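In the laboratory, one determines a bound structure by crystallizing the protein with its ligand and collecting diffraction data. In a computational setting the workflow is compressed into a single prediction: the sequence and the ligand go in, and a structural description comes out. We illustrate the idea with calcium ion.
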Amino acid sequence: MAIDVIVLAAGQGTRMQSELPKVLHPLGGKPLLSHVIDTANKLADVQVTVVVGHGAETIKAKFSDTRLTWVEQKEQRGTAHAVAQALPKLRANSQALILYGDVPMIKLDTVTELLDLVDDNTLALLTAELGAPTGYGRIVRGNDGEVRAIVEQKDANAEQLQINEINTGVMCLSSEALKKWIPEINSNNAQNEFYLTDIIAIAKSHDHGIKTSQPGCLHEIEGVNTRSQLAGLERAYQSQVAHQLMDQGLSLADPQRFDCRGELLTGTDVFIDVNCVFEGKVSLGCGTRIGPNCVISHADIGNDVVIKANTVIEGSLSKGVVTIGNRVQVGPFARLREGTVLAEDVRIGNFVETKKAQLGQGSKANHLTYLGDADIGSGVNIGAGTITCNYDGVNKFQTKIDDGAFIGSNASLVAPLTVGVDATVGAGSTISKAVPAHNLAVARGNQRNIKGWKRPSEKT
Ligand code: UD1
Ligand code: CA
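The predicted complex, in structure-token form:
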């Protein structure tokens, strides 16, 4: 059966107090609306239509997926009015499923369970039992237990306000029925709005059955109206991701101090200490350990790697991910930027920054170094304080250091430059000419010792 999803996302989101349209605020690093669209897109034979209003252009510009259909609701006159804008897009004989751009955690299972209840004569409604139902539309059932209607908070009488079963807003029915009944809805209610919820009583009056199902967890139906709610949902989302990963074999020092803002893939026996943030696509090979307070973006990290405390790894999709081979050790306090590629057994120590730098097997840069635009062979030792001077203020240049070279401490390597196999650079040198293989290059002022030198003893 073809499924036409209608995602309502036209509301202003005033209470977010934001220039950014509400549905673009991120949850787990991804816009709220993307979560809903991604879940919807997992359905078979699906077409997704998004109803936008406030910030329509900004929202549309964020999505490049050409399968999406957009419709505009210029004035927000209620949820039924929003759905009405999407009616011309519905395919013949499809089932229409209503979702919400600001209810991001709805699960595929919940949706498919609901879809299973629908047929040509049955509407399916997702409801929930809440201890504190204030604000929600209430599900009114008859003595036979059948759903009769939904009554909005502002239209409910004292007795109806006591009902704990609420309307989540999510529903599904044949698109033919939806097309027929939406025009029957009027705005004679406390808010002068066209309520989608009125469709229940209309369906009933046409002898349509109403079936209900419930979500597996209440976070699935939680909407975001305020930044506090968004932060609450973020914790719920992160907790879900953390527990999913732990079920697959990841060890987390504390699932409450873990943030995944993208996609994290982990091998067996990976350990992640507290307060780490993962962004974009990150993979961690078997036996790898991540120390506390690390931020890791777009990185492919091998087996038995040790990333020590306070390391920042900043791969980039457009400028190059960071690739780290097996048994590498990094940090503490290292910064690996875009295009860094470390072969097996490399060591990067504290206060080392790398950018578009490749280091071959077993090479080391253990302290206080900048390696940018550098192609470094295997078994190379980079002394403390070494700088690749890769930028002349206008252009960037490459430094190439061959296998087995030894760069003494505090060397300035002025690119473009090559240092040959097994060459040595003396400490404190400024090297601007190629160093042939096996040579020693020293380029520093000669030392003078001044005998009997007295330091000034007072200010003159
Ligand atoms: C709605 C339901 C209520 C349910 C609640 C669940 C109606 C009349 N009421 O109430 O029964 O318990 O959701 O959260 O449907 N929107 C538009 N265009 C509009 C109006 C709304 O796109 O003209 C979108 C909003 O952006 C929002 C969603 O629809 O994402 C819900 O609208 P909202 O006004 O928040 O509905 P509620 O009053 O919360
Ligand atoms: Ca609402």
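The chain has a mean pLDDT of 97. Keep in mind that any predicted model is a hypothesis to be tested, not a measurement.
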